[in-house]
Design brief:
Elements: H1 32-36, E1 44-50, E2 59-63, E3 66-73, E4 76-81, E5 101-103, E6 109-112, E7 118-121, E8 138-139, E9 141-144, E10 147-152, H2 167-171, E11 175-184, H3 187-195, H4 199-203, E12 218-226, E13 229-238, E14 241-243, E15 247-249, E16 264-266, E17 269-271, H5 277-281, E18 288-291, E19 295-299, E20 304-313, E21 316-325, H6 332-361, H7 374-396
Antiparallel strand pairs: 1-10, 2-3, 3-4, 4-8, 5-6, 6-7, 9-10, 11-21, 12-13, 13-18, 14-15, 16-17, 18-19, 19-20, 20-21
The structure holds FE2/S2 (inorganic) cluster and fe (iii) ion.
């Protein structure tokens, strides 16, 4: 089931890029791939909208700075570059004249959806010599979790999407509730906000979602890598603290629950509730983890929350929040009721709006990092290392990866 709201990737609002404006300012040159990835990393599948939004009427999305037309034919969604090679008109303004094709609205150039081949130029008759000489770039498309996913690469074979999805979502039946929202701000700010060790305890202490739940003041945290994910492992949590010369500070209050004692645990972190057996079986080292190309996983005792930060262009991203429950049968009903009744509004809504606000107003680099930002440094390193590995792999296949995503 998908609880629907919001939109798929839409034509973005433009505003001047805030990155690297002034020479000599501190920048992200220690992570050159990361610094160059303002409009996203190539070589990955990205969710672009709910499956139900893509039908036989062509629809334009923007992904990694490129305009792409999506259309469903025979139950399957196809994706092509959304610029007619004849005179540059968007194919998404056109429609379908023959099964398995899309026709440009201007002069009727007609492209095969699967191969991108120009099959007909209607206004030049059935034997137009241009046919067979033009191929429109296409993109691989998949559907998972009730959404359409598009692969953007450098010409390599797209890996199976299941290799990129969180492992537990592939190997187990899950019911999901989700929210998709176009947001302002670079996708890296959104991802860094998601994985940032420091902010939740302070920024979200006022959220309704945390109204009755205590937040620590600070944590001792270690970042470890397992497979393609890095995890925040909480070594120690401090629920109140004395700040010399200032006084005691805590976000606890009489109406909040007490800090969890060991009912269950995720990694080193105690939980208020027993952990669902499917979640427990994953043996996550920590409750917060991140992987390429910007996927956040927050593990709760009875569900897992994911955030996919989809690069639209340098200054806009698509927020895709997914909540998954691994309960089966009759036990899925409380999950739906809970999700639609309040989680969707409190967590994917008001709580997440605080993150949206911070991502919109973040202006880095320059930046001056502090101890909890080890989480950001490890994420950037993961991105950098993964990019290097991919570049090496592609070169082995005779493909030179583009230094930075470019408009195709
Ligand atoms: Fe597309 Fe002429 S611009 S057919
Ligand atoms: Fe947050």
């Amino acid at each position: 089931m998908d609880a629907r709201n919001g939109d798929s990737a839409t034509t973005p609002r433009r505003r001047p890029s805030r990155l690297g404006k002034l020479p000599g300012r501190q920048d992200w040159s220690s992570w050159p791939h990361y610094q160059a990835a303002a409009s996203g990393f190539r070589g990955y599948w990205y969710p672009v909208g709910y499956s139900s939004r893509f039908g036989s009427k062509p629809k334009q999305i923007t992904l990694l700075g490129r305009k792409i037309v999506l259309i469903r034919d025979g139950g399957r969604v196809y994706a092509l570059k959304d610029r007619c090679p004849h005179r540059g008109v968007p194919l998404s303004e056109g429609n379908q004249q023959f099964p398995g094709t899309i026709s440009c609205p201007y002069h009727g150039w007609t492209f095969d959806l699967e191969s991108g081949e120009l099959k007909a130029a209607i206004t030049d008759g059935p034997h137009s010599p241009i046919c067979g000489k033009v191929v429109q770039p296409t993109y691989d498309v998949a559907e998972r979790l009730g959404m359409v996913w598009v692969f953007v690469g450098d010409g390599e074979q797209a890996p199976p999407i299941d290799e990129q999805l969180p492992e537990e979502l592939v190997g187990n039946a899950a019911v999901v509730g989700s929210r998709i929202q176009p947001r302002e701000g670079n996708w890296r700010f959104a991802c860094e906000n998601g994985y940032d060790e420091g902010h939740a305890k302070y920024l979200h202490r006022t959220s309704l979602w945390r109204l009755f739940k205590p937040m620590p003041v600070w944590n001792e945290t270690r970042i470890i890598q397992r497979g393609r994910w890095i995890y925040r492992v909480q070594e120690k949590q401090y629920w109140d603290a004395d700040f010399p010369g200032l006084g005691r500070w805590s976000s606890q209050a009489w109406y909040k629950m007490k800090p969890p004692s060991k009912v269950g645990n995720i990694g080193n972190t105690s939980t208020h509730r027993e952990v669902n057996p499917v979640i427990a079986a994953q043996e996550f080292p920590g409750f917060a983890s991140v992987s390429m190309p910007g996927v956040l996983r927050i593990v709760y005792p009875t569900f897992i929350h994911y955030e996919f930060y989809v690069p639209v262009d340098n200054d806009n991203h698509l927020y895709v929040g997914v909540m998954a429950s691994f309960d089966r049968g009759i036990r899925t009903i409380p999950f739906y009721l809970k999700y639609l009744g309040f989680v969707r509004w409190l967590f994917h809504g008001q709580f997440s709006a605080q993150d949206k606000w911070m991502v919109e107003v973040t202006d880095a680099p320059p930046e001056k990092l502090y101890r909890p930002d080890d989480s950001l440094l490890k994420w950037r390193k993961l991105a950098e290392d993964t990019c290097e590995e991919r570049a090496e792999r592609l070169r082995g296949e005779g493909i030179e990866p583009a230094a930075a995503p470019t408009e195709n």
